[in-house]
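Mods, move this if it's the wrong board.
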Amino acid sequence: MTDRFRSGAGRLCLDFIRTLRHRGTPGEQEELPDAVAWGAWIDQLGPFAVPVRPAEVRDAWVVREAIHELLTGEVRNATRQRLNRVAALPVPAPSLTALGELRWQAEDPAEAMLALLARDALELVTSPEFARVRRCAGPRCGALFLDTSRPGTRRWCSMETCGNQAKKSAYRAKEATRG
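Not the wrong board. Structure tokens:
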């Protein structure tokens, strides 16, 4: 099974805001168009062992945009208050099954997932790691990622995608000038 949603940005909240792919470009794509997609995102990246079926997606969009505002420095008082309210909601709780397996549960899994995401964003923005949040240098990307490279000079959200595209473009331009 192939994962439907991108992960690997370094923090869960960064993976979440990447669900608005190519943000701010003409090719912007919504990866969470409905509650089914939001549930699929939770199923892929969340802690729950059973499928999550949210009733709607609107709260996810609102929280995603609030997290993006917070992480890009465009935070307004209303955004800060919204994230504080969401972060205060109940988060998933661990429980041990009779077979000794760890399971995560919540009365409202979608709401609990939003609480986890808001908490992750608040923790990130107040941590030393925040200085290493970067915007992808890919001209059609713009995703945020946590640069965990030793020198702190990573340029692309993904070497396989954006980094490879940039290298191909540079090679083609170099070959065209030789032509």
